[in-house]
Design goal:
The chain has 141 residues and is of the alpha+beta class. It is 35% helix and 21% strand. The protein has a five-stranded antiparallel beta sheet with strand order 4-3-2-1-5. Strands 6-7 form a two-stranded antiparallel sheet. The longest helix has 16 residues, at 106-121. It is globular and about 45 Å long. It starts with a strand and ends with a helix.
Length: 141
């Protein structure tokens, strides 16, 4: 599911891949449903390709989002209620205990929680990757 959810640099929010055109992607905002093109010069990143640094190995974003969902019972996270930067790192330590505290910045954690909130508000709560879909999508790329 996260393979078709995109983050586009310079544009707020997350987008769902709708179709591919010549030298562009047709994307739909998950918040508003408005469709727009994303061109070849736009920096487009699939959430399925993102990992979080840990002490031992990198963890896929889908696993981290599942942990956030489990901790919050599938409800949105109120980042402002958590507190200052130290409290946010402590909160994230409960979600991903072995995250690399030197490489993962508070801004990264806030962005992750923002993405989680946007996905939950859009009704997209199945973050787990299906094993049978992964090889097919890698072959197409």
């Amino acid at each position: 599911m996260l393979k078709t959810i995109l983050s586009i640099s310079g544009r707020p929010g997350l987008f769902k891949l709708v179709n591919r055109g010549k030298n562009m992607l047709i994307v739909e905002s998950i918040a508003t449903g408005k469709r727009t093109p994303a061109y070849a010069h736009d920096k487009v990143i699939s959430l399925g390709d993102i990992t979080m640094y840990t002490v031992d190995d990198d963890v896929p974003l889908s696993d981290v989002l599942e942990s956030v969902k489990a901790k919050n019972d599938g409800k949105p996270v109120d980042v402002k209620a958590i507190g200052d930067d130290a409290a946010i790192k402590e909160y994230f330590g409960e979600i991903l205990p072995d995250f690399d505290r030197e490489k993962v910045y508070v801004s990264d954690i806030k962005k992750l929680l923002s993405w989680y909130n946007q996905l939950v508000e859009a009704g997209m709560t199945d973050f787990a990757t299906k094993e049978d879909e992964t090889p097919e999508s890698e072959e197409k790329a």
